[in-house]
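Ticket #4471: structure export looks truncated?
Reporter: QA, pipeline team
Priority: medium

Steps to reproduce: submit the single chain below to the structure queue and open the exported record.
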Amino acid sequence: MAKWLDSLEKMIGGGDKGPKRIRTMRWLLLIGCIGAALMIVNSYLKFDGVEPTASPAAPPAADVPALSTHRSDSEFALIEQPLENRLKEILEKIVGVGTVDVLVSVESTEEVIYAIDTQKSQQITDESDKNGGRRHMTSVSDNGNIVLYETSGDQSPIVMKKIKPKISGILVVAKGAEHPTVKRLILDAIEKGIDVPVNRISIVPSKQ
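Actual output as written to the record:
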């Protein structure tokens, strides 16, 4: 190795710039040896690849129902939805009316009035004190029980009257409602069909 290096230095060391060329060559050889050593060491070392940190799985998206304004699983929704479906079915049969969407809001459920067996009693008391004074008292009690009737061994209350749920508002979005005549037909159908005041009905045209 040393002889080979001496021969190489003699070859490039001639002339005035010979020593400079020799120093440059030595630096190049040194750098080359260092690089080769690093490559050899690197081939014997084993680096375990670092797995990229998995980002936490995003929580499953909640099931978002289609546009719905109902109070789910409530007594109000059980009243509103059938009314909406029935109104939609009827209004779409009107001449000049296209697709219809209906929103009904109720503020009370159905009220049931049962027969009551009322029992009234009155008690009158007159008292006199030792000074000659008199006191008159009247006590009235009013008790009532629901009247029941029996059928096949089962007892059920007698229903006197049922009061329909009170509708607080109706919104109708309909194709064709931009025409005054069609809008008036829709308004009349709702007002007279389910007995709702005009001031509780809103009718607007839908997008074309």
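Status: closed, not a bug. The export was complete when the record was re-opened. Leaving a note from the reviewer for reference: The first strand starts at residue 100 and ends at 106.
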